[in-house]
Design brief:
Its main location: cytoplasm. By secondary structure, the chain is an alpha+beta fold. A five-stranded mixed beta sheet has the order 15-16-17-18-22, with no helix packed on it. The chain has a four-stranded antiparallel beta sheet with strand order 10-13-12-11. A four-stranded antiparallel beta sheet has the order 14-45-44-43, with no helix packed on it. About 20% of the residues lie in helices and about 25% in strands.
C-alpha cells in the first residue's frame, strides 16, 4: 500500500475455493477488481464574493474485473485499485427569482398543498392562483407566509404561481416559489435534468461490471448418502388398494347422481381433521416437519387412497408470484395495457372531478347525528307509541268516532265516543242508551289519567270541530241530526297547564271553606241546539267551520267577511242534504230584548239560537237520473282557513287574538255591504254512502223546466269505491288534490279532471276505515284499516303498495289525525273500537320532507293528469271507431245517411242480419261435425 497526494488503495480479495470432500475435484475462480472508494472531502472556499457557491472534489472510480480460468491457488488474489480524479462542480443553487418559502400547516390547508398528501417527492409541483394569495394577504396581512414577497407577487404577470415542495430542505425551507415566468421554466427544467442525470449515473454503474462464464469440469459422482433421503421422500404404496362397492335399490337405477362441495366457512367448525388411522393416539415419528398456517380456509379438491375414519385438519402454505422488472416493462408496453388505460380514462377523470367537488376527507361518521333530534333519528322507520288515553267510566267499551287537536294549545286533544250499536240495537236498547251520557272528552298531556273537560251532548256525537278563530267555541253533530254548540271559555285556563304542573294545586283558601268539587273534572253542558224540525233526518257524519275570510249568503253567494271571525259552518248527513248554518243573530234577535235566563252553569253565548236555530242554506244532492238521491257522508270545499295569510302571520294572529272581542264581534249581524268573492270556487266534493264521489255546486240556480230556485244537478259523479266513503281530505299543499277512502279502496282526485281519479291502486284485502294527509310531507298520507294497522303511503317511493305497515291496536281503528307539534316532533292520534286513544310519534323519515319534494309531487300529479287525458282520448277514439264501423255496415246494406245515428228500424234490421249470419255459421259447423245432414235446416 502506498500513499501520495491522492489516496490509493490496493485490496486483496480471495474469491473462494470450492473443494470436494474427498479432494478429487477442485475449481477456482479468481476475480480481480479495481474499485474506487469515495473519500471526497468538502472544502469551503472563502473569497470576497459571498454568493460564490462552494466547490466539492469528487473522485472517479474505475473498476477492472478479470476472470482467470484454471486452478487458482491460495496465493491468487483480487486486486482493486482506486485512482482519484478531482472534479469541481458548483453546488445546487436556485435560479434567479426563485426563493425558499416556509409554509405553515394552516397555510397548507388554505392552498390545498399539504406535505406528503397534495405534494410528494414524485409530484413536488403545485400551481396556486394569484388571486387566492392576494385574498389571503388581504385577510391575514403580515401573518400570511407570502407577505415577504408581496411586491413580487403583485408584479407577477401570470395568473398562477408555481410552488415546489423541498422534501430534503435542500434550500433551507419546505417550499420554493418562482416569482417570474422565466424562473418557473428554469425551475421545471432543472428538476427534469436532475432526474435524467441520476438515471444515467445509475445505468452506468450497472454496466461497469462484466462477468465471464467459466464452464464447470465433469467429475465422477461420489455418494454421500443423499440417495437415502430421496428414497424416503418418494411416496410408495405399501398396501393393496381398497375396493369400494356402491349399491342402489332397483327403482333408483339410472337416476342422476349429484355431488356438491361445501365451503368450510359456511358453517361453524366446518374444518375437520382427516387422519389416516382409526387410532387417535397413533402418531408417526417425523424426522422433520415443515408446516405453515393460514388464517382463511380455502376449499380444495384432492383424491387419496386412504381410510376415511378420523378427520384431521391439513394446512398448506403458498407464496404469491411476483413479476420481475423485465416482465413489468413488457406489461406496461403491451397493447392490452394501453387499451385498458384508454378505456378507463373517462372513469378516472370522473373520479378526479368527484374528488374535487366532494371533500374526500369529510368523515361521515362524525356528522351522522347532526340532523337528528331528540325525538327520533333518521334510522327510525316505525312509529313509536308516545302516550295513550282511556277512561274506565266514560270511554270504556265505546268507539271513538272523531278526533280533533286543539288549534292553539299544544298537547290538548279531544275525542268523541259513542255506543257500538246498530240502528236496530239502539231501538231495542233505547232505555239504556237514553240513560247513558253522550260526551266529548278533552285530554291533555299534563294528565294522561283524567280528562281535563267533559262536554255533554243530547245524543252520541259522530263529528265535531273547533272554531277557526275562537277555539273555545265547539260545534258538533248528533246522532239524531241536531247541531249543538259549546262554549268552554270559563274553563279554558284548565287546558293551558304546562306538563309536570300539579293539577291538584289550587289557590289558598280559608280552612273549612274548601270546595269538594274543585278536583273533579268539570262537565260542560251545551249552550245551544238546533231546531229538531229543521235539522238533519239522519246522524250528522261531518261538520266543518267556514274560513274566517268568507261567509255565505242565503243564495249561496260567497262574500268577504269583514270581521275575520268564523261564524258559519257546514254539516252533512245521509238524508241527502248538505246544510249551511250561521251563528250570528238575526236582526229580530238584536231588536228584541231576550230576558230569559239560562240554567246555572250554562253560558248564554248562543242563547238566541237554542231550539230555534235553522239552516241558512240547504243543498239537495239529487241524482241526474231517477232512482233516489245521493246520501252524503263526507264533503270537502276548496277554501281553507288563513289561505290569504302567510303561515307565520296566521300563527301569530291566532296566538294574539282577543277572544272576548271575538265573542262580541261574532254576535253582530252582517251589514249587507260585504263584497262578493268572485275567486272562491262554489263547487264541493261529496262522498256518499254508496261509494260515489260527487262534484256539485252549492249555489242554487233557477230550474229551466219548473222555474224554481234549487240546487243544480251534480257536474259529475263516479261510483268508484266498494263501500261507504269514510274520508274526503284535501292535501294541505295542493288544494286541488283530494284523498277519498271508502270500502276496500282509496283514490286521489284532481279538481278539474272529471274523467276519473288520477291514482287508484288495487283493492286492499282489509276494509279501510280512515285516511289523512301528512301535515309536513306533500307525498305522504296515512290509511287506517279495520284490522288495527296503519298503512303509510309515500308517492315518491312507490305507488303500488304502502311504504310502511304497522299494527297499532288489536281492534279496529275508527279515526286518525296527524298533528305537527313542533319542528322536531310530529304526532298522530289513533282511536279504536275499545275507546282507547293512542298517541304515536312519527319517525324522522316520514315527517322531514326531502329536497324539492313539493315540486316532485307536483310533477307526479301533472304526469298522472296527462295519463288520464290520454286514457280519455283513447276512449273517445274507440267510440268514434265503433261509430264508423256501424256506419260502414249501414253503407253495405244500402241505408242512406251513413253518419246519422241509427233508428229503431235500422237497429232491428241490423240485428236480424246478424242473427241470420249466426244461424248460417252454426249450420255449417254442425254439418262439419256430422250432427245434421245437408238437407236439414235449423229452425
Amino acid at each position: 500500500m502506498a500513499e501520495s497526494e491522492n489516496t490509493e488503495t490496493q485490496k486483496t480479495d480471495l474469491v473462494g475455493e470450492d473443494k470436494n470432500v474427498n479432494g478429487n475435484m477442485e475449481k477456482g475462480l479468481t476475480q480481480v477488481e479495481d474499485k474506487e472508494e469515495d473519500s471526497s472531502q468538502r472544502e469551503k472556499n472563502v473569497s470576497a464574493n459571498a454568493d460564490s457557491p462552494p466547490e466539492t472534489d469528487k473522485k472517479e472510480k474505475k473498476v477492472v474485473k478479470t476472470k482467470v480460468k484454471g486452478k487458482p491457488s491460495k496465493d491468487d488474489i483480487q486486486v482493486e485499485q482506486t485512482q482519484p480524479v478531482a472534479e469541481s462542480t458548483e453546488a445546487n443553487a436556485l435560479p434567479e427569482n426563485v426563493f425558499p418559502l416556509f409554509m405553515t400547516s394552516k397555510t397548507q390547508e388554505i392552498y390545498n398543498c399539504k406535505c406528503d398528501e397534495d405534494v410528494t417527492i414524485e409530484n413536488p409541483f403545485i400551481m396556486i392562483p394569484k388571486a387566492d394569495i392576494l385574498e389571503d394577504m388581504r385577510m391575514r396581512a403580515a401573518v400570511c407566509d407570502f407577505h415577504p414577497f408581496k411586491q413580487e407577487i403583485l408584479d407577477y404577470p401570470g395568473e398562477d404561481i408555481l410552488i415546489m415542495y423541498d422534501y430534503e430542505f435542500k434550500y433551507g425551507q419546505n417550499f420554493v416559489v418562482a416569482l417570474t415566468e422565466e424562473a418557473k421554466e428554469l425551475l421545471l427544467k432543472s428538476t427534469e435534468e436532475d432526474k435524467t442525470e441520476a438515471d444515467g449515473q445509475a445505468a452506468e454503474e450497472e454496466d461497469d461490471t462484466v462477468y465471464l462464464y467459466v464452464p464447470p469440469e465433469s467429475k465422477e459422482w461420489v455418494s454421500q448418502g443423499s440417495e437415502k433421503e430421496i428414497d424416503e421422500g418418494i411416496l410408495k404404496e405399501g398396501r393393496r388398494k381398497l375396493k369400494v362397492s356402491v349399491k342402489r335399490i332397483r327403482k333408483e337405477f339410472g337416476a342422476a347422481v349429484t355431488f356438491e362441495d361445501r365451503n368450510v366457512s359456511d358453517a361453524k367448525d366446518g374444518s375437520v381433521d382427516c387422519p389416516s388411522s382409526e387410532d387417535r393416539s397413533f402418531a408417526v415419528a417425523r424426522i422433520e416437519l415443515d408446516k405453515g398456517t393460514q388464517a382463511i380456509h380455502e376449499m380444495t379438491s384432492e383424491g387419496v387412497q386412504t381410510n376415511w375414519t378420523y378427520p384431521r385438519t391439513a394446512t398448506v402454505q403458498t407464496y404469491p408470484r411476483e413479476f420481475t422488472e423485465q416482465e413489468k416493462l413488457e406489461l406496461y408496453d403491451s397493447a392490452s395495457c394501453k387499451q385498458f388505460v384508454f378505456s378507463a380514462e373517462y372513469n378516472f377523470h370522473l373520479a378526479l372531478q368527484q374528488n374535487e367537488i366532494t371533500s374526500v376527507f369529510y368523515i361521515d361518521w362524525h356528522h351522522l347525528g347532526d340532523s337528528d333530534d331528540t325525538f327520533g333519528s333518521k334510522a327510525d322507520n316505525h312509529m313509536k307509541e308516545y302516550q295513550s288515553f282511556t277512561d274506565l267510566q266514560f270511554s270504556k267499551d265505546k268507539v271513538i268516532t272523531c278526533i280533533q287537536w286543539h288549534p292553539v294549545t299544544k298537547g290538548v286533544v279531544a275525542t268523541a265516543v259513542a255506543e257500538k250499536l246498530s240502528f236496530d240495537e239502539r231501538i231495542d236498547q233505547s232505555a239504556r242508551v237514553i240513560m247513558t251520557p253522550s260526551i266529548i272528552l278533552i285530554w291533555s298531556f299534563t294528565d294522561p289519567i283524567h280528562p281535563q273537560l267533559i262536554l255533554e251532548a243530547p245524543d252520541d256525537i259522530y263529528s265535531f270541530a273547533f272554531n277557526n278563530t275562537n277555539p273555545n267555541y265547539i260545534a258538533g253533530g248528533c246522532y239524531n241530526g241536531q247541531i249543538i254548540l259549546w262554549d268552554i271559555t270559563s274553563h279554558a285556563d284548565r287546558l293551558k297547564q304546562q306538563r309536570g304542573s300539579n293539577r291538584n294545586k289550587k289557590r289558598t283558601v280559608l280552612p273549612g271553606f274548601e270546595d269538594p268539587n274543585a278536583l273533579k273534572t268539570p262537565i260542560i253542558h251545551y249552550c245551544a241546539v238546533s231546531s229538531i224540525d229543521h235539522s238533519h233526518r239522519a246522524p250528522v257524519t261531518d261538520i266543518q267551520w267556514l274560513p274566517d275570510h268568507m261567509q255565505i249568503t242565503k243564495m249561496g253567494v260567497p262574500q268577504e267577511n269583514i270581521t275575520n271571525v268564523s261564524t258559519q259552518l257546514i254539516s252533512c248527513a245521509t238524508d241527502n242534504v248538505v246544510l249551511f248554518w250561521d251563528t250570528k243573530p238575526s236582526k229580530v234577535h238584536q231588536i228584541q230584548d231576550d230576558k230569559t235566563k239560562m240554567p246555572m252553569g250554562i253560558p248564554a253565548t248562543f242563547k238566541y239560537l237554542d231550539l230555534t236555530w235553522k239552516p241558512l242554506l240547504r243543498v239537495t244532492l239529487a241524482k241526474s237520473e231517477p232512482g233516489g238521491d245521493h246520501a252524503p257522508i263526507k264533503f270537502s270545499i276548496q277554501e281553507k282557513q288563513k289561505e290569504r295569510l302567510t303561515v307565520t302571520g296566521a300563527k301569530s294572529e291566532m296566538k294574539d287574538i282577543d277572544l272576548n272581542k271575538t265573542a262580541s264581534t261574532s254576535q253582530k249581524p252582517t251589514s249587507g255591504k260585504e263584497k262578493t268573492l268572485h275567486g272562491v270556487k262554489t263547487f264541493m266534493y261529496v262522498g256518499t254512502e254508496d261509494g260515489e264521489v260527487v262534484y256539485v255546486d252549492w249555489m242554487p240556480q233557477k230550474d229551466q223546466d219548473s222555474g224554481k230556485i234549487q240546487t243544480p244537478k251534480p257536474a259529475f259523479y263516479h261510483c268508484l269505491h266498494d263501500g261507504p266513503i269514510v274520508s274526503m281530505e284535501r292535501s294541505p299543499f295542493f288544494k286541488e288534490v283530494l284523498l277519498s277512502v271508502g270500502g276496500w279502496t282509496f283514490a286521489l282526485w284532481k279538481e278539474g279532471v272529471s274523467s276519473g281519479p288520477i291514482l287508484c291502486p288495487a283493492a286492499s284485502n282489509v276494509r279501510l276505515s280512515c285516511g289523512m294527509w301528512s301535515p309536513t310531507r306533500p307525498g305522504v298520507f296515512f290509511i287506517s284499516k279495520v284490522d288495527g294497522t296503519i298503512d303509510v303511503w309515500d308517492l315518491l317511493d312507490k305507488t303500488h303498495e304502502p311504504t310502511l305497515t304497522q299494527s297499532v291496536s288489536p281492534t279496529s281503528i275508527s279515526a286518525i289525525y296527524p298533528y305537527q307539534v313542533t319542528q322536531k316532533q310530529q304526532l298522530i292520534a289513533v282511536g279504536d273500537y275499545t275507546g282507547t286513544l293512542h298517541i304515536l310519534e312519527i319517525p324522522w323519515s316520514l315527517r322531514h320532507p326531502t329536497a324539492n319534494e313539493v315540486n316532485a309531487v307536483s310533477n307526479y300529479i301533472e304526469r298522472e293528469v296527462k295519463r288520464r287525458a290520454f286514457v280519455e282520448e283513447r276512449w273517445n277514439f274507440r267510440e268514434r271507431e265503433k261509430r264508423e264501423q256501424e256506419a260502414e255496415v249501414k253503407r253495405k246494406i244500402g241505408i242512406v245517411g251513413a253518419m246519422a245515428p241509427l233508428t229503431e228500424e235500422e237497429i232491428e234490421m241490423k240485428q236480424r242480419l246478424e242473427y241470420d249470419q249466426y244461424l248460417a255459421e252454426e249450420s255449417a259447423f254442425l254439418r262439419q261435425l256430422g250432427i245434421i245432414q245437408d238437407d236439414e235446416v235449423l229452425v
